[in-house]
Amino acid sequence: MSLTTTRNMHNGTKIPAIGLGVYKAEPGEEVYQAVKSSLEIGYRHIDTASLYANEEDVGQAIKDSGIPREEIFVTTKVWNDEQGYEDTKKAFDRSLKRLHMDYVDLYLVHWPVPGKFVETYRALEDIYEEGRAKAIGVSNFMPHHLIELMKHAKIKPMINQIELHPELQQDETRKYCTENDILVEAWAPLGKARYFDNPVLQELAAKHSKTPAQIIIRWQYQTEIITIPKSVHKNRQEENVNIFDFELSNEDLEKMATINKEKRIGPHPDEFDYDN
């Protein structure tokens, strides 16, 4: 068990179980150094998006690392105002150019834009069949979005990246994805550190001599949720992944379940302002 531990997507592509998210990491030196330090620590999974405006610096840090491209798993996403079949293909080309790459490991539909996500995903299928994305999937899709998508899709999404942390455990969506062989990946996996003082987290942190963040990441790791905690600080990046020397018991996992409030930090996919 280490940072090289992977999960298998249904097409056989392997994705590292833990990665680095770079949402709101400032373009330029901040995100460049964040990616550089994470790779030095041993991370091999970097998650960015067109929206983040930092793909270019992510790509440069990967290129400058000296690590062979095939050893690093890179995800990016198509933003809402880029969706639709033709626009998505153009958006993907722009992302590749900014990343200094000729393929990505995973390309995602960032949000289920009503009236567009089916056509957007059709473009992803073509990109996948061309070999320019090793895997494709979706983000922020609820079961009803996935059901609608699957009426039209030729290729089942390999992953669904959703807001998921102890206060939002998304049991229904996770259950649907598990039953349909779609991996689940968590964004905002630490709940933006908003409830580290939760008594259950504090109790488990004391029991295992770990931090609340380490308890959360270990919980996600043990429940096969792929997780991409964001940090631009090397010491925090190291702390976040120092989770392989302990294990949560079944009783601990049951206690983690009690934290769930189905409480979101980000917008609900059915209430998102897709016009702005």
From TrEMBL:
Pfam families, per database record: Aldo_ket_red
Q: Which UniProt keywords apply?
A: NADP, Oxidoreductase
Site positions for Lowers pKa of active site Tyr, renumbered to this chain? Answer: K77
Q: Which residues form the NADP-dependent oxidoreductase domain?
A: 21-260
Among Gene3D superfamilies, the record links this protein to: NADP-dependent oxidoreductase domain (3.20.20.100)
Check the record and name the PROSITE patterns matching this protein. ALDOKETO_REDUCTASE_1, ALDOKETO_REDUCTASE_2, ALDOKETO_REDUCTASE_3
InterPro entries reported for this sequence: AKR (IPR020471), Aldo/ket_reductase_CS (IPR018170), NAD(P)_OxRdtase_dom_sf (IPR036812), NADP_OxRdtase_dom (IPR023210)
Keyword Cell wall biogenesis/degradation recorded = no
Q: Name one GO molecular function term.
A: oxidoreductase activity, acting on the CH-OH group of donors, NAD or NADP as acceptor
Sites binding substrate sit at H110
Entry annotation: catalytic residues: Y52
Sequence similarity:
Belongs to the aldo/keto reductase family.
Protein name, as recorded: Diketogulonate reductase-like aldo/keto reductase
Q: Mind giving the lineage of the organism this protein is from?
A: Bacteria, Bacillati, Bacillota, Bacilli, Bacillales
